Amino acid sequence: MAWKLFIGLLSCMVFLLLPTNAVAEELVIRPAAAPGPLDNPLKGWCPYTDAGEITQPYSMVFQYVSWKHLEPNEGEYRFEEWEAEAWNVARAKGKHIIFRIYVDYPKLESGMPDWLIQQGVRMRPYTDHGGGLAPDYDDARMILAMEKFIAAMGRRYNKHPRVAFVQLGMLGFWGEWHTWPKEKLYASRKTEQRIIDAYRKAMPDKSLMVRYGRDYAGKQPWIGFHDDMFPQDTDNGKDWSFLAGLRATKRTENWKAAVVGGEMVPNQAGKWLGKSFVQTKKMVTATHFSWIGPYCPALERETSPEFQRRSEELVRMLGYEFRLTEIRTQSSISSGGKLSLRIRGENQGVAPFYYEWPLAVGLLDTNGELVKTFASSVDIRTWQPGNFDESVSVSVDGPPGEYDLAIGIVDPWTGQPSVQFANRLPIVDGWSVLSKIHVTPKKR
């Protein structure tokens, strides 16, 4: 009996000592869950850069800019100059950009190009909201000039990897698509349609946002929306509220394809992260918000530990939040062979990721240096809220040796992995390290 037990133990030892390329050993990795990062790209806070100190982590900034500033003379576009002066300020460095063009911003100097006024487009004074001058948006010269300007913006920003999302702007007070309470100053529905069509033609690769889901905008399945009185008027029981408008035109599911976000009621973060926090979370879930700004809780200077805790909770609710639950792969592979990964996880957020950023596989050496990267065919835009399950196969042609096997979602702007998972995993230069892997010499 003892002899049989010895033989059995010896057999097990021989099995364990076999070379790694002799037995196809499957690795099963179940990373521990952890709170997601607070500055994942294209979600969370998106503050102004000129409103004082930003007190919480963030990955995007919001910038207004006037049409006049970008096209001071007809056909003379100063996009590069604007980027150099506005995108490189300290609070914007390393951050993605959301922007809105305005023509009429109450209290501020008109954003209407002088050359267009000189052509005869009428400017109409008003005193509401501090006063200003509203152009005749329906003037044929105005419409044509806006269309040409939008086309030029598209040539510059449609594929610009630093630009996160674009709000249509241009029309109405603050570029917010209304002139309340002076409704006669606003554009016609026909003009709205031409502006929407112009943006769609100029920027088919960007997730575009409009203020209201009404009329022509309410017929577009591809368009995103921004609610600029969140969460107070998001769903306040009135037929003019943000969600009421989306329900009326059956656009409540647009979030699956296009981003939804917007501004918190200015200077009211204390209320909406205080006694009204339950309502705030309810509205995040109902709208599938991905980001909040330009006014947002990150601009508040006097805060409590509870305020900070609730800020973090809210950021992690916004947009996507990817958690890995299981990865199955090999412990070794011969150089030139196929490495297979089965990646299972859950999007714990309320919205998907809106761009086709590549999911890549990386090999890191013992010094943490990246030796090889391998692109996969995974489309992370399909990771809607709920579970996801991907099979990845890449050809590994790295030199023989032992490596850290890692994955990363690569930002095309930086060329580096920047989307982090809600897991307790080692992070090396943005790469999430899964396990060790042994690459053996190529089989002959």
Sequence-ordered SSE layout with sheet pairings:
Elements lengths: L1 H16 L8 E4 L14 E2 L14 E7 H4 L8 H9 L8 E7 L11 H5 L4 E4 L5 E4 L4 H18 L5 E5 L21 H14 L4 E4 L13 E3 L15 H7 L11 E3 L6 H4 L4 H11 L3 E2 L12 H13 L4 E9 L1 E3 L2 E11 L10 E7 L5 E10 L6 E11 L4 E11 L4 E4 L7 E2 L2 E10 L4
Parallel strand pairs: 2-11, 3-4, 4-7, 7-8, 8-9, 9-10, 10-11, 13-21
Antiparallel strand pairs: 1-12, 5-6, 12-14, 14-17, 15-16, 15-18, 18-19, 18-21, 20-21
Gist of the model:
The chain has 444 residues and is of the alpha/beta class.
Q: Could you explain the architecture of this structure?
A:
The model is unreliable at 1-24 (pLDDT under 50). The relative contact order is 0.13. Helices cover 23% and strands 28% of the residues. Helix 6 (189-202) links the parallel strand 7 and strand 8 (207-210). The chain is built from ten helices and 21 strands. With 444 residues, the protein is of the alpha/beta class. It is elongated, with a radius of gyration of 26 Å. The two termini are 45 Å apart. It has helices at residues 2-17, 67-70, 79-87, 114-118, 140-157, 189-202, 242-248, 269-272, 277-287, 305-317; strands spanning 26-29, 44-45, 60-66, 96-102, 123-126, 132-135, 163-167, 207-210, 224-226, 260-262, 291-292, 322-330, 332-334, 337-347, 358-364, 370-379, 386-396, 401-411, 416-419, 427-428, 431-440. The strands form four sheets. The protein has an eight-stranded parallel β-sheet with strand order 2-11-10-9-8-7-4-3. Strands 13, 15, 16, 18, 19, 20 and 21 form a seven-stranded mixed β-sheet that branches.
